[in-house]
Amino acid sequence: MNITIVGGGFGGVKAALELAKDNDTKVTLITNNKNFVYYPSLYSTATGHDHKESWVPIEFIFRDHANVKITYDAITSIDPAKKTITGSKTYKYTKLILSLGSVTTYFGIEGLDHYAFGIKSEQEIRTLQKHLFRQMGDEGVVDKNYVIIGGGPTGVELAGALGQYLEKLRVFFGLRDQKIHITVVEANPRLLPRMSKQASSAALKRLRKLGVRVETNKMVQSASAKGLMVSGKPIETQTIIWTSGVANAPFFKQNAQHFNFNPRGKVVVDDYLQARPDVFVIGDNADTPLSGLAQTAIHDGVFVARHLLQLKNNEKPKKYKTKNLGVVVPIGYNWSIYERGGIRLTGALGAFMRDAADIVGHHDILPMGHAIDTWRAGTRPRLRIPEDLSATE
Ligand SMILES: Cc1cc2nc3c(=O)[nH]c(=O)nc-3n(C[C@H](O)[C@H](O)[C@H](O)COP(=O)(O)OP(=O)(O)OC[C@H]3O[C@@H](n4cnc5c(N)ncnc54)[C@H](O)[C@@H]3O)c2cc1C
Prior knowledge:
Elements: E1 2-6, H1 10-20, E2 26-31, E3 35-37, H2 42-46, E4 55-57, H3 58-61, E5 68-72, E6 77-79, E7 84-86, E8 90-92, E9 95-98, E10 102-104, H4 112-115, E11 116-117, H5 122-138, E12 146-149, H6 153-172, E13 182-185, H7 197-209, E14 212-215, E15 220-223, E16 227-230, E17 233-236, E18 239-242, E19 246-248, H8 250-254, E20 274-276, E21 279-281, H9 294-312, E22 327-330, E23 336-340, E24 343-347, H10 348-363, H11 368-377
Parallel strand pairs: 1-2, 1-9, 2-5, 9-21, 11-18, 12-13, 12-18, 13-14
Antiparallel strand pairs: 3-4, 6-7, 7-8, 10-19, 15-16, 16-17, 20-21, 22-23, 23-24
Helix pairs in contact: 1-9, 10-11
The protein binds flavin-adenine dinucleotide.
């Protein structure tokens, strides 16, 4: 059996690993990034922890899997009639799995694409860190305000970790008597709007304890070199970090004639995650109830791989069912909120759940020994000077 997978993220890598267990199956994994990115810890890498916890070379993950061929390319189109996909070259497929993830969107807010930093890729993190180092190191100032837009998990996690990191930088550069102000701006009436009200209140209390200002019910209207306009009021800042707004991978819009979409632009799939004959769409791209989570992409990858193996072995295929492992949001050192159904744990117990989730998450992709090493890399904070700080952008 030959399977082509596009996307070397949670869904694509997990599907390839599962299929690779079958010696009669040959997998071609096409992806546009040489690294697998572990998004849940990007906030931590952005605030000085070892990058090993956040990205792992794809070649390393598949080093022992001779039946997985890795190709680096960005796929831009599909021709289902000819069963081909095209990037810099055209590739034939018999069965295709698409797991292309999400991209940032600024909802058309003026100036954000130019003035906001992001933490959704290696490059974005390096750019943000260079900015922070340059401000304090070269200009000798801390910013008037470090503004994080978005009070979802990523914004809250970052807000919880940023203060400690900036404080270390401030001491490192000998900037005395300069106070650090961090503000989170959220359009919804509460933080973590997809979690319970109790979780939102706990997050608010925790952030306030860490000295973070929280502005809910506030709309960002524009960004400029001077700062932000938020619900009619200016906020002076040179450091705007956008953690809000994700949209489906642009590939689908570019090939819209071949897919059906839900109102949020996710691809409609059947009970087997199939979007059209022999084309499976999984992870963030698929219109499933828990789409948008790493655990869902992993679950989808395993499901589709097993489904294809069931078809190959003439077994009766099972229908897709969602799997909810809960959500855990770390806020500062040794403190997290874990929530699943009616269960909620906060503080050190929540932090324990987060550590467990990260070890399991890394182990989904790596053998246990490497997964623990990768997780431990993130537990060692270091004041890392961005390597190419002197390079001009
Ligand atoms: C900052 C951040 C923090 C997050 N934290 C959490 C968390 O704590 N818990 C949680 O459950 N989820 C979290 N998520 C969500 C989670 O990371 C995603 O749901 C998950 O990555 C989805 O997996 P995927 O396989 O669909 O896409 P991805 O993991 O994004 O993989 C997509 C892959 O496709 C590649 N690709 C894209 N387009 C093309 C193309 N045209 N051609 C070839 N290759 C292409 C990309 O380079 C990437 O390798 C977070 C997301 C972000 C951005």
